[in-house]
Model the fold of this input.
Amino acid sequence: MIQAIAFYFFATIVVGAAVMTIMARNPVHSVLWLIMAFFNAAGLMVLVGAEFIAMLLVIVYVGAVAVLFLFVVMMLDIDFAAMRAGFSRNAPLGLAVAAVLLAELLLGVGAYNAGGLTLGSPDGSAMQAADTSNIEALGALLYGKYIALFEIAGIILLVAMIGAIVLTFQPPKPGARARQDVGKQIRRRPEEATVMKHPEIGQGVEL
Amino acid sequence: MTAFFQSLGLPYEWAWTVATVVAIVVVSLLVMFSVAMVIYVDRKVLGAIMLRRGPNVVGPFGLLQSFADGLKVFLQETIIPTAANKGIFLLAPIITFTVALAAWAVIPFWDGGVIADINVGLLYILAISSMGVYGVVMSGWASNSKYPFFSAMRASAQMISYEVSIGFVLVCVVLFAGTFNLGGIVRAQQSFGLGVINAYAVHPLLFPMWVVFFISALAETARAPFDLTEAESELVAGYQTEYSSMSFALFWLGEYANILLMCSLNTLLFWGGWLPPLDIPVLYMVPGIVWFLVKTFLFFFMFSWIWATVPRYRYDQLMRLGWKVFLPMSLLFVAVTSGYLMATGHFDKVGIAEVPATATEIVQTNPAQPTAVRGQS
Done:
């Protein structure tokens, strides 16, 4: 019974937050609702026994991706009137996206009911070996059976990362201010930087 | 504790629920009480280092100073700026405070003395502490004021940067322990160093990682020398500038609860948690929670000591330290540690395939069977 209560609690909040994400007028509120949905989806994951995935969802999406997202949205200077004026112009495109998403959802539900996939056990519950923890089961699969795919994914991500760095990297301009060299700064002693002067009254100092 | 409530005639599910709620309330109250005392300690240590007396008026030795301050902010008026985004403005301190308390759910105070003994405990801590940035970002944005917004930007960049290296440090510890369960990590440290020392930090591969973790913990909690989020010479009071009364106090309490959490993580991950420093039978006469609290307090003392001693970093230096020093260093240590452990046959000894006793706890979805979900504390 506690599971049922917890499930409906999390599920209601996920759906409600998802609705609020698209209903909210203020884009920052939208992102915050989205984060709410992520977090409660993680709760649902814990409920089905995928606690590792749940933690990763929170660490990666809530902790890193959504923060950057929120950040960009916060810095936008949004003109609400202009946004509403563009609504009718963008409506056909939005409807098309909505139709595609609905079709995919229906397809997914249909395929699930047809029982075509055997990723989980037949009754729909997640496949969970009773005596191994989530992390070990995932690790055994990723680093055993699917090691090649895993490595390929890693290489692709590495290439993407290097690509992003190369695209945005700007070499320092020749005339720009010198870069800070911490080792050099620490090696510098007071004698190299300061001199003691004993100026006569009214004479000033020669530097 | 579940067994106690079961003996009162409750069915297992409800006994478990009641026991958990009671444990949550007790731990929250104790953490809040420790925060109040630790603020007092912080001010006393600072005073001593600066040759002042520190708080010494309210109560014996000024011990009640924090409670007097608490009463004061409680009675103050809550001021909300007219240009602020009201809902988020009020929500932000609550999030900071809640998140700071939520992480304590998986901290073992003694062997088995933990609210939720889950097998992804360390990941849970990472997940919850990565939520902490929202309180700061939301308050900075909702205040609708320049300085809080600058502070929020700084805070989020800082926290994300240092979380990366903390993650790699934790990987090193997990490689040694073979489990993400915090209790399991502490148990793996028993007689680890030279057969007598109950600490991971004495290992030459883990000591540098502990130093990285400690400094990253300072940056993660925005403590001096990394307190750029509330650098008073530049940003007034940072993201707290527009806050008053209880909403300000919630930030304050959450911040110190986070600091205590980081201190206890230092204790648990590197210095043997509830175990005595040396693996000698006599030392086990002292209850585990005493060792845990003493070690945590020592780390807190180091936090205040550093606050009083070290000047503040510049922001680009902070970023440089995080990305150009700690990240490559911890990455290198992950590779070296796993190579070393592989070469010495550590993984065969630990027995990765073997499942710890507590591992099945959360994956069981049917608490109706009393054997499926173990009780706690």
Observations:
- The mean pLDDT of chain A is 81.
- Residues 1-78 of chain A form a domain with the Four Helix Bundle (Hemerythrin (Met), subunit A) fold (CATH 1.20.120.1200).
- Chain A has nine helices and no strands.
